[in-house]
Design brief:
Strand order of the largest sheet: 1-2-4-3-5-8-6-7
Radius of gyration: 17 Å
CATH superfamily: Zn peptidases
CATH topology: Aminopeptidase
Structural class: alpha/beta
Number of helices: 6
Order of helices and strands: HEEEHEHEEHEHEH
Amino acid sequence: MASPELQELITINEFPHPWGQHTIITRINGSSPVEDGIVVVGAHQDSTNMWPFLPAPGADDDGSGTVTILESYRALLAAGFTPKRSVEFHWYSAEAWEGGLLGSQAVAKSYEAEGIQVYAMSQFDMTAWVKAGTQEEIGVITDYVDHLLTTFNKELIDAYLSVPYVETKCGYACSDHASWEKAGYPGIFTIESSFAHANHANIHTSHDRIDVSPEFSFDHMLEFSKLAVAFVIELAGWETA
């Protein structure tokens, strides 16, 4: 998929955690100085069931976000994208497990302790559901996020997506962006719809599957992949020389 020249810029690493599931971090190294910071796109790879020991397929929460950013990563590699700022894609462990946000908190704290500069972070958590009888929309979270970066995110949606955004709130620490905000980095969160129209009936149950309803939409997910690509290119820049 990636050219030999681009492959030399790519690293893939596991960030270990004591609970057994590791966070996966893939990086495309950029040409600009480390002081310019990195652009981070994230999703969480774990899923949970509110009833212990029952299946937790997690197709929407957060298989959808996991695949969304994987597709954006694939598209960037296929296009031969070489960034100015370094770009990282994170698949977090243990977002939904026990206290929540465990994987992203560990990563963000580590970056803070090492003095790693993060220019911008965007979280994709639940990107597949279009509730029957509602207008298709992109949910832009407006509470406990970086407001300047959120404004920029809305501009990206207007410029590059075919679906309008709606402002919505989800409360403190509702996804992994909160770990980055807590560590002092600018973080934002985009979700499948307004919070009221999200897939609350199925997440954290054995019914969080792609075949549970036609409301699960891969076309809707693709809009979020486009948004992730736009976020990366606009903020990291494309080295054309």
